[in-house]
Amino acid sequence: MSRKSYTDLDPERIPRHIAVIMDGNGRWASRKGLPRLEGHRRGYKALKNFVINAADFGVKAITAYAFSSENWKRPPEEVKGLMKLIRFAAKAELNYMKKKGVRIITSGRFHELPKELQDQFNQDFDETKNNERIILNIAVNYGGRNEIVDASKKIAEMIAEGKAKADNIDEKLLSSLMYHPELPDPDLLIRTAGEMRVSNFLLWETAYSELFVTETLWPDFSKDDLYEAIKSFQGRTRKFGKVVEESGKQK
Questions:
Q1: Which range of residues forms the domain containing residue 46?
Q2: pLDDT tens for residues 65-119?
Q3: Catalytic residues
Q4: Cα dihedral across residues 203, 207, 209, 211: positive or negative
Q5: 34, 45, 49, 69: which could form a disulfide with 38 (CB 3.0–4.6 Å)?
Q6: What is the tally of structural domains in the chain?
Q7: Quick check: is 219 in a domain?
């Protein structure tokens, strides 16, 4: 039953950036006797709603795990279907996202994607680049370890070219070489379908993210579920490794 209002959320403590592992599409389809790809199709519609609901709550960025670098190991027909579905969604929802003020970007090894998908995403990037309501970062052909490897390669090139020294390598430099250093690290990481692992997702950026795991399968994830995740987030004390006194002050 949907709430009519969500006024008990603290507008000063809305997570700026939410990362989401959209799990359970296949299980959702299986339970309903539908093909797995139908579950993924319903999943992209859930993402569409999720982004707008998050924007309504005041969230400024979403990173959604759409296709991991490990997903290439799935059956070829499923992979082919997913690539087509991602391209379809990127095209079909472009005007809607433009209208709603959503800026679209991607994270991952973009150059390894099918060319027609690259072309569609490039159109999405260009036509939404001036939108400022919320950023939708689609993690496609993404792996957290790959991202760290790619950043490390950039550092190696900088050293070889005399633009950096090994002694100067620190967290700030490495962070600046991640796929989207302009995004704040996720405050909240949501995972659906009850799985208790991070699955090689944003390994560097989620070092201090708050975790919220729900048994809800992704196609069923609603605005009420997002409310519960944000409410849980607001009930926690973020210490970042510091000691927190009973008053709530860090020291």
A1: 12-143+186-234
A2: 999 999 999 999 999 999 999 999 999 999 999 999 999 999 999 999 999 999 9
A3: 23, 71
A4: positive
A5: 34
A6: 1
A7: yes
